[in-house]
């Protein structure tokens, strides 16, 4: 089977996330952008705030809206991680997300063990990694 290009993989993940939001959250998000950077995947989901979250936020219940969003993120995190792992055919080390009630956008950062196996891996931007200080040393 022919390996996908990085662009095809990014579009596939975007489409799968859209389908997940529609089928599992009953919500059709706006534009979804996925972009790989070395062993990281950045995902932006426009119009990801649900009606109930927006209503809470608009009526001076922002903290409650944030709690609802935190619960939603905790519930969907393993599903999104599994969806991404199946798409890229490698393990996800971590997945973090945050939603802005100001812009209505969710940002997701996915850290992977390796770069996905694609036809054009040379087009994936590479980061120059710096050493991370050991915070556990005495």
From TrEMBL:
Q: Which domain of life is it from?
A: Bacteria
Specify the Na+-translocating membrane potential-generating system MpsC domain's residue ranges.
Answer: 6-113
Descriptive protein name: Na+-translocating membrane potential-generating system MpsC domain-containing protein
Q: What is the lineage of its organism?
A: Bacteria, Bacillati, Cyanobacteriota, Cyanophyceae, Nostocales
